[in-house]
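Researcher: Please predict.
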Amino acid sequence: MEFYDFEAQQLNGTTVKMDEYKGKTVIVVNTASKCGLTPQYEGLEKLYQKYREEGLVILGFPCNQFANQEPGDAEDIQEFCELNYGVSFPMFSKIEVNGEGAHPLYKYLKSSLKGLFGQKIRWNFTKFVIDKNGKPVKRFAPVTKPEKMESAIKKLLVP
């Protein structure tokens, strides 16, 4: 399996195949609306706006596995992201990132790029970077602010 073999459901219910992002640099991030790290939505949106014309896409995956910090339904999540942070990058349906019920995409990403805690996702806003060929190349910790990822992202963008 590779990144492009997976699919996920967006907040609006549409199923998206990851092969739609072939040729793009992708950031996959598990998100939450009621977390101390939630302001990272702002930094992620800034990165997206700055580099989307150069091939950057950010995929947000809400997750309620960490201290129940994403309790809302799809409509609540969509409204929160748009009203509070102007999020325009694709947001997906709420998933699990750890355990038996972990989304297949996250099982793949965690096995490809282990973190400080092995294959486990430690908290909200863990960020995975996939290059334009679909290869997972970097994992950023939850506390890493999006702006601190910029130099690594720029190296991967389409010239």
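Model: Strands lie at 7-9, 15-17, 25-31, 56-62, 127-130, 136-140.
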